[in-house]
Design brief:
binds zinc ion; alpha/beta; TIM Barrel
């Protein structure tokens, strides 16, 4: 359902400045929260990033890594997907890599156990809207708000109370309004620097070559775990992750 069509926005995103990235002082203290929606199922409270309280973050589009100049951010979009997300999670676990999962609200609602698994494995959540409308930047503020805030609620409910820490507009269709809205909800607008174009099935070698040649553009790499056959994505990650380690990169999260 999360199809990517029309990539004209891509240059726009790339044009977005690597930019000033204010490091928000993150409180990692979990405070117990009444959780009426859980029906007795205990939310996993061990996740270090669980932040029930909402703290406003910067509204400009983040690209930098919290690991600094030698950090890379693996970001994985459009899931969770019952076929591909478990395989991606297994590969990341075997590789000792933490990533950021930009989830579509309806997918999160449909597969809450996968959302919980993503959190339990130490990854972070990102709001990728309810229905992945790549033209949302041309629509009303009420529509943008519904897309962002409903997805925030759907993802947070599916996770058992762990909130998304980022907001990535589908296809990079950010607006000043949507960035400010997400930031006010503690979700840092999240861009990317390296687009593997895995949704176009370019071939594993091409995807790996893209990462190798474009990682100098910046640290945030885009993959997908839904929206079609992701076998190439898995194969590319299997090559890319060890290569990045060999180059001296460490795996982090986008700055907030
Ligand atoms: Zn997407």
């Amino acid at each position: 359902m999360a199809k990517h069509k029309g990539r004209a926005w891509h240059s726009r995103l790339l044009a977005a400045a690597l930019g000033v990235t204010a490091m928000a002082a993150a409180t990692s203290v979990w405070t117990a929260q009444a959780d009426p929606g859980q029906g007795g199922a205990q939310a996993r409270v061990s996740a270090p990033d669980a932040q029930p309280q909402v703290t406003k973050v910067a509204a400009d589009i983040a690209h930098a890594s919290d690991r600094g100049a030698q950090g890379v951010n693996i970001t994985i979009d459009d899931g969770p997907d019952p076929v591909w997300t478990p395989q991606v999670l297994r590969l990341l676990k075997d590789s000792g890599v933490k990533a950021t999962f930009c989830m579509v609200g309806t997918q999160a609602e449909a597969y809450p156990d996968l959302v919980k698994q993503v959190v339990a494995d130490g990854h972070r959540l990102c709001d990728h809207t309810v229905s992945h409308d790549t033209a949302m930047d041309g629509k009303s503020e009420a529509y943008q708000s519904q897309q962002i805030l409903d997805a925030e609620r759907m993802i947070t409910k599916a996770s058992g109370g762990v909130r998304p820490q980022y907001y990535r507009a589908p296809g990079g269709a950010f607006t000043p309004y949507s960035r400010q809205l997400a930031a006010s909800r503690g979700m840092r607008p999240l861009g990317w620097n390296v687009d593997t174009k895995d949704f176009e099935h370019p071939g594993v070698d091409t995807m790996v070559a893209t990462v190798k040649s474009e990682i100098s553009n910046g640290p945030t790499i885009l993959f997908h775990d839904a929206g079609g056959d992701r076998a190439q994505t898995l194969a590319a990650l299997r090559e890319v992750l060890p290569w990045l380690k060999e180059q001296g990169y460490s795996f982090g999260f986008p700055v907030r």
